[in-house]
Recover the amino acids of this structure.
């Protein structure tokens, strides 16, 4: 396992600045996405994926993951919205081409939300149908497609996520903080570890998607061991944020990045 840093953790920084900070902190890897000053140009990526891949390759750091949104926000053209599959598959083909050209190993997307008029069960059914098609498409590419179950999606419980994995073969961008926020114990999330293709690290507790490292309930040394024992060898992306979503505005992002980095290094050296 190796560390990475999410570019959207540093919202005021350019993409190159975020890459340089990752290098300065001894992390040397950066997850990229479509948010804040470091955002990739989505329209350019979909039109000319190889050209945007060249920009990413020039950052001077490893780029293990790309976070893609098909529409705007969490609900725009989400996977649980009927009638979106054809357009989303068209975009996904370009996204996979971009990731392969950039040497990015994983792409994560969101599973979808409960749309107007839907039940949670209906959202799960539509999303699963979309994911089956997307998994088939991604099989022809080097990059691995995964979903991040998150607060406000329909996939807010480990049980629902497990059903999606079993039904579709999709891999996970696993973030324990979303489950901890909703009150699930860490041991209830651990069975999802064998399905992880990417991992996010952020301290949390019940009712708080993000909190200071010393104030949360997630046991990271135990988490690292669970992932290792499940055979996970990918990136652990440090992801404290400064944004309005879920009131994650009050932590010193740089301090939290360093605390998580040091926690992992200490555990790894002991192991």
């Amino acid at each position: 396992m190796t560390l990475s840093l999410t570019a959207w953790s540093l919202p005021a920084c350019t993409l190159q600045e975020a890459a340089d900070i990752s290098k300065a902190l001894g992390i040397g890897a950066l997850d990229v996405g479509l948010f804040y000053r470091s955002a990739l140009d989505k329209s350019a990526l979909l039109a000319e994926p190889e050209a945007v891949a060249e920009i990413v390759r020039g950052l001077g750091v490893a780029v293990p993951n790309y976070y893609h949104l098909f529409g705007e926000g969490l609900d725009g053209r989400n996977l649980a919205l009927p009638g979106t599959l054809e357009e989303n598959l068209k975009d996904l083909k370009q996204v996979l081409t971009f990731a392969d050209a950039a040497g990015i190993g994983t792409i994560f997307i969101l599973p979808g939300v409960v749309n107007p008029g839907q039940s949670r069960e209906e959202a799960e059914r539509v999303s699963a149908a979309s994911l089956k098609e997307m998994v088939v498409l991604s099989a022809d590419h080097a990059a691995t497609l995964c979903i991040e179950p998150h607060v406000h999606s329909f996939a807010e419980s480990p049980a629902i996520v497990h059903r999606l994995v079993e039904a579709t073969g999709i891999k996970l961008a696993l973030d324990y903080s979303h489950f901890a926020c909703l009150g699930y114990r860490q041991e209830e999330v651990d069975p999802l570890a064998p399905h992880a293709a990417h991992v996010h690290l952020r301290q949390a507790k019940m009712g708080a998607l993000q909190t200071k490292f010393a104030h949360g309930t997630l046991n990271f040394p135990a988490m690292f061991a669970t992932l290792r024992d499940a055979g996970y060898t990918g990136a652990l992306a440090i992801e404290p944020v400064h944004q309005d979503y879920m009131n994650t505005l009050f932590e010193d992002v740089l301090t939290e990045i360093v605390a998580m980095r040091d926690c992992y290094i200490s555990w790894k050296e002991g192991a």
Summary: The chain has a mean pLDDT of 96.
